[in-house]
């Protein structure tokens, strides 16, 4: 159950309370997020929408421990991450978060296999175990045959699938996707969304996704709109489409 | 586990043009560093190999070089009978010597350079056993005849067997060439000490040093104690090997300091080259680094990773620099020996120790040039770097 009123139970997987983020630019305070609340349960699939500059990426960064909020707390599976030291937060990310970016962010000099293996290098898995996990993850995204290809030898959609394999290979607590189809054509976008939806439905993954595309957002259980620094639930799917 | 080294290897390979500046800077610096030090080593080795542990050189008390010393024939007679002096078929093994310098034209440049002329006793070859005649014969006592060191013979015009040369007011016949095993003697010209005194119009029966061959290296202390405590003598005694080693220190130090200075200045340039290469590597790969940090690699891992990359570049540079100067090894060159004011031939001497030193030097440059960019890469906020294109 996804809530934005701050009244969720302490059982929720992700609990965001009174989250605020203020940037200072040129002596001026920009209040991007203000008193934002959010509760997400395990297995939920949430889409965030909102105009450019509304703070969607900022919110994902705070949820993923890539940035620290100005106010408020983020608690994931009982761990409050907002007051962790930088070192602890880094280790926490490795354990709990899978990131999927609009530009895929694969390491160009590493093969698909090596890219997907990266998160496993931070675990205690043996080389053989790592290989098994990587092969499984690449099989899930349908790229078992492309293990030794470099990113530049893959299409955009394939690159994003490698990125998804990298995000899921260490079995994180939840996935954060920032416009995962933003750079793809419709067909590739559909394939990627098919894959992400399967991760939720078949593998029980928890996914929080930012998108500009209402068609993409419709795949999620719920679409939340970021407006004036807080989240509001979308009313009707077609009214969202009209808005964007 | 850390960021895999393959990442750095492939990144350097992918952007090798940008690494070239750093590699060449470090290669040049290491090359000069190794070459200069190998000169110092070669110079020192040449002088050190001139002396033997079982020879002792006797000079006037207080004299530090033969040029400033004199020894009378009476003193030589007392030395002959001192304990520890070895005896051969023709009596005690002692050579009383006089030195002078004479200008000869260098074959390479045509200009004159000073050659050390050493007047010796006729039995000198039984005392300096590392010296062997390789051509012609020994000079005959009493005649203005010369035997010349092999480097002197090859470096100067006219110093070949059968030739006649003029110097010091005399007319000299070159009758032989000797090989002194790469030591300083190879750059010298030898003749009869009494003839030298005579030609140079020095008082007869006055020498500048005497070198004795000892029963064994262990007899040195006994010989020295006896001779220095003899009231009839006012002399200093050194092991021949120590005497020559000491001659080399000033020059060796000069070359080392000069070489160090040049290498240091070049090193600063090379470090800036490395800084430039690594800063641009970090700048170009901002989003890659941020991605790895997002995946959970910590700041220290990033620092280590970029340091490894800097080490990789500096290692290649260092190895190139070492390889480039390696052909110098054994190459003969010449320099002034300021102790004798004569020209001394010696060879570059590139030892494994020097090469290791050069590699360490290159890694230090890599570290200094790599650390600030590595720190910047690690300290950059992830959320900011992820927004970069
Ligand atoms: N490091 C920063 N310093 C100052 N302002 C920032 C910083 N990062 C983001 N902002 C500002 O915060 C606001 C929200 O940015 P954010 O990237 O979260 O928006 P977004 O909703 O993801 O936009 P888009 O749809 O274009 O990706 C923007 O006005 C942006 O300029
Ligand atoms: Mg954004």
Q: How would you describe what is shown here?
A:
The complex is a heterodimer of chains A (244) and B (389). Chain A has 244 residues and is of the alpha/beta class. Chain A has a single domain, classed as P-loop containing nucleotide triphosphate hydrolases (Rossmann fold, 3-Layer(aba) Sandwich), CATH 3.40.50.300. Chain A is built from eight helices and ten strands. Chain A has a six-stranded mixed sheet with strand order 6-7-8-3-9-10, with helices on both faces. In chain A, strand 4 and strand 5 form a beta hairpin. The C terminus of chain A is likely disordered. Chain B has 389 residues and is an alpha+beta fold. Chain B has two domains: 183 residues, no CATH class; 172 residues, no CATH class. Chain B has twelve helices and 16 strands. In chain B, the strands form four sheets. In chain B, strands 1, 5, 6, 7, 8, 9, 10, 11, 13 and 14 form a ten-stranded mixed sheet that branches. In chain B, strand 5 and strand 6 form a beta hairpin. The radius of gyration of chain B is 30 Å and the shape is elongated. At the A-B interface, helix 1 and helix 2 of A face helix 1, helix 9 and helix 12 of B. Bound molecules: adenosine-5'-triphosphate (ATP) and magnesium ion. The site of adenosine-5'-triphosphate has 12 residues of chain A, from strand 1, strand 2 and helix 1.
- Indicate the CATH architecture of chain A: 3-Layer(aba) Sandwich
* Class computed from helices, strands and strand pairing of chain A: alpha/beta
Helix-residue proportion of chain B: 40-55%
- Order of strands across the main sheet of chain A: 6-7-8-3-9-10
Main sheet: strands, sense, barrel of chain B: 10 strands, mixed
Order of helix and strand elements from N to C terminus of chain A: EEEHEEHEHHHEHEHEEH
Q: Which percent bin holds the helix content of chain A? A: 25-40%
The average pLDDT score of chain A comes to 93
Beta strand count of chain A? 10
Average pLDDT score of chain B: 92
Quickly count the domains of chain A: 1
How would you sum up the global shape of chain B?
elongated
């Amino acid at each position: 159950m996804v809530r934005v009123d701050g009244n969720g139970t302490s059982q929720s997987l992700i609990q965001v309370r009174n989250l605020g983020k203020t940037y200072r630019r040129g002596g001026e305070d920009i209040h991007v997020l203000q008193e934002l609340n959010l509760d997400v349960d395990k297995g939920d699939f949430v889409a965030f929408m909102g105009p450019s500059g509304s703070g969607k990426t900022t919110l994902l960064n705070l949820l993923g421990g890539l940035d620290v909020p100005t106010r408020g707390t983020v608690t994931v599976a009982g761990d409050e991450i907002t007051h962790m030291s930088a070192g602890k937060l880094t280790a926490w990310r490795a354990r709990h978060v899978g990131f999927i970016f609009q530009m895929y962010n694969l390491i160009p000099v590493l093969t698909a296999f090596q890219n997907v293996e990266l998160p496993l290098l931070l675990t205690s898995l043996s080389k053989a175990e790592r290989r098994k996990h990587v092969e499984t993850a690449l099989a899930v995204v349908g790229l078992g045959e492309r293990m030794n290809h470099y990113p530049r030898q893959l299409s955009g959609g394939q690159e994003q699938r490698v990125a998804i394999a990298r995000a899921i290979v260490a079995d994180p607590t939840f996935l954060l996707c920032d416009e995962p189809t933003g750079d793809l054509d419709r067909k590739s976008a559909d394939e990627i969304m098919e894959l992400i939806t399967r991760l939720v439905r078949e593998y029980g993954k928890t996914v929080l996704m930012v998108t500009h595309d209402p068609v993409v957002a419709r795949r999620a259980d719920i679409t939340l709109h970021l407006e004036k620094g807080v989240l509001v639930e979308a009313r009707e799917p077609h009214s969202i489409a009209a808005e964007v | 586990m850390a960021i895999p080294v393959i990442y750095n290897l492939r990144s350097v390979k992918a952007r090798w043009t940008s690494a070239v500046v750093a590699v060449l800077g470090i290669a040049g610096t290491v090359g000069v560093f190794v070459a200069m030090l190998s000169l110092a080593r070669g110079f020192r080795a040449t002088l050190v190999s001139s002396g033997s542990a079982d020879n002792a050189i006797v000079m006037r008390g207080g004299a530090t070089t033969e040029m400033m010393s004199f020894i009378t024939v009476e003193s030589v007679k007392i030395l002959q009978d001192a304990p520890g002096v070895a005896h051969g078929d023709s009596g005690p093994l002692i050579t009383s010597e006089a030195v002078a310098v004479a200008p000869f034209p260098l074959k390479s440049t045509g200009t004159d350079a000073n050659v050390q002329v050493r007047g010796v006793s006729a039995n000198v070859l039984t005392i300096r056993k590392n010296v062997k005649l390789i051509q012609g014969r020994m000079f005959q006592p009493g005649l203005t005849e010369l035997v010349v060191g092999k480097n002197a013979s090859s470096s100067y015009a006219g110093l070949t067997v059968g030739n006649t040369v003029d110097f010091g007011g005399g007319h000299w016949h070159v009758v032989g060439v000797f090989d002194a095993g790469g030591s300083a003697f190879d750059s010298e010209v030898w003749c009869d000490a009494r003839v030298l005194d005579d030609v140079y119009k020095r008082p007869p029966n006055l020498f500048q040093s005497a070198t004795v061959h000892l029963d064994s290296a262990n007899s040195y202390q006994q010989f020295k104690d006896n001779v220095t405590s003899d009231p009839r003598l006012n002399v200093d005694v050194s092991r021949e090997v120590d005497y020559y080693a000491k001659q080399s220190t000033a020059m060796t130090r000069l070359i080392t300091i000069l070489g160090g200075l040049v290498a240091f200045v070049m090193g600063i340039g090379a470090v800036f080259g490395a800084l430039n290469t690594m800063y641009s590597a970090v700048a170009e790969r901002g989003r890659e680094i941020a991605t790895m940090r997002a995946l959970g690699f910590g700041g220290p891992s990033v620092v280590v990773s970029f340091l490894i990359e800097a080490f990789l570049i500096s290692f290649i540079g260092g190895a190139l620099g070492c390889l480039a100067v390696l052909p110098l090894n054994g190459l003969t060159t010449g320099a002034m020996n300021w102790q004798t004011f004569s020209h001394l031939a010696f060879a570059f001497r590139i030892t494994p120790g020097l090469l290791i030193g050069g590699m360490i030097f290159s890694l230090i440059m890599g570290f200094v040039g790599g650390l600030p960019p590595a720190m910047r890469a690690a300290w950059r906020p992830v959320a900011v770097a992820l927004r970069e294109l």
